[in-house]
């Protein structure tokens, strides 16, 4: 006998509450496991392809781990030192940039830079703060992404978790499937397939878009002669994951640096602006439509809200789980709306009219018909 609906809602509510408590209280502890699980999830299709090609699961997992480790080492040796050097150089150059901006505004907009004006005091404060805390700011920027856990533990635990979860992924999915409530198993499987479709279509595709744009912007800006081109390109490409933010932040950063470096050389500044114009054209018309598609079910505004809300509530861990939870909530909302449109509350008189004819025909039978 199935449980009453009220009891089922209670149990599921308790489970969701427990999940929220775990994320809130153990976010720093479970972060490496969340990251490792996410890596295993996104690499599972590749492991399945290698298995279909004849490799065992262990061989497929070991092959993927070797390729990923090699790529990480190459990136670490070839790109990260340049990024760190450019970031440090940008922080050290920031006071000079602020001073030049202050001089430019004083020359062309003297009313804004009168002694005691808000603009003058703000620029002076920014310059003094950067001068006084430039080294500390650089160190904070370099370490902030890893501040939630010890960097060494994170680097060691994440690959181990990802390896073992990828190795045993199919078995874990089968065990979870075996524990589903029998009455609701088909519905839960269908919802899980839809969530997986959204995640695989959006996240895998969007990560590819970010990497392609980061490479394009970084190489193109460095070829244009921009001193901090690789850093600006990496920022613009990685922030592309958040709709509109990547192009806005990266474009403002790159064009601002171009104005500082190439002031008076308008052709060079135009090249930097043109690089971002070309990048946005490619991203909007070619790269994203082919790699992500237009029907993954994650509206840009919904994604921005999810990242902001979960990031505020749960910090860095919240931002990691924001996209999966946003996809899950979106699928569940569409599922609920479909059932609502099929129900009596939505259909109202239409539902009554469909049942009325048979009732009326029964009620209008005459005694002669019965005879």
TrEMBL record:
Segments crossing the lipid bilayer: 12-43, 55-80, 148-167, 209-235, 241-259, 266-282, 302-335
InterPro entries in the record: AI-2E-like (IPR002549)
Record carries keyword Lyase: no
Record keywords, A-Z: Membrane, Transmembrane, Transmembrane helix
One of the GO biological process terms: transmembrane transport
Subcellular location, record wording: Membrane
GO cellular component: membrane
Superkingdom assignment: Bacteria
Membrane topology: Multi-pass membrane protein
Family (UniProt): Belongs to the autoinducer-2 exporter (AI-2E) (TC 2.A.86) family.
Name used for this protein in its record: Predicted PurR-regulated permease PerM
Species annotation: Rhodobacter aestuarii
Lineage: Bacteria, Pseudomonadati, Pseudomonadota, Alphaproteobacteria, Rhodobacterales
